[in-house]
Write a structure and sequence with these properties.
Elements (H helix, E strand, L loop, with lengths): L1 H11 L9 E8 L5 E7 L4 E3 L11 E8 L6 E8 L5 E7 L1 E3 L2
Antiparallel strand pairs: 1-2, 1-7, 3-4, 4-5, 5-6
Bound molecules: zinc ion.
Length: 99
């Protein structure tokens, strides 16, 4: 009995901080003002930056299209991360970053 529940608990408990498999942030839709939570997977959404690419110190790169629930405005983001997934450069069209 406990085995199944333990697995469920693991599934819903996402560790926070640098050990998380996801980078999380919010964006705001420029058309309708909806605040949209974004979850980018470090393994499938974020790619490694090779030497000579991107801004100085960049290690990871994320490019993503985001669609909210309220309208069909597509938001495009591109973010460069340094060590520890610290944001060092970011661009957005169709919306703005919430923080
Ligand atoms: Zn919208």
């Amino acid at each position: 009995m406990s085995g199944f529940l333990d697995k469920l608990k693991d599934f819903f408990t996402v560790p926070e901080g640098s050990s998380s498999k996801f980078v999380k942030f919010n964006v705001i839709c420029a058309r309708c003002g909806e605040e949209i939570p974004v979850r980018a997977s470090k393994t499938s959404d974020i790619s490694r930056v090779y030497e000579g690419e991107g801004p100085a110190g960049a290690e990871y790169f994320l490019r993503k299209e985001i669609l909210g629930n309220n309208c069909n405005n597509l938001i495009y983001i591109s973010i460069y991360f340094g060590p520890g997934y610290k944001v060092i450069s970011r661009e957005i069209t169709g919306g703005e970053f919430a923080d």
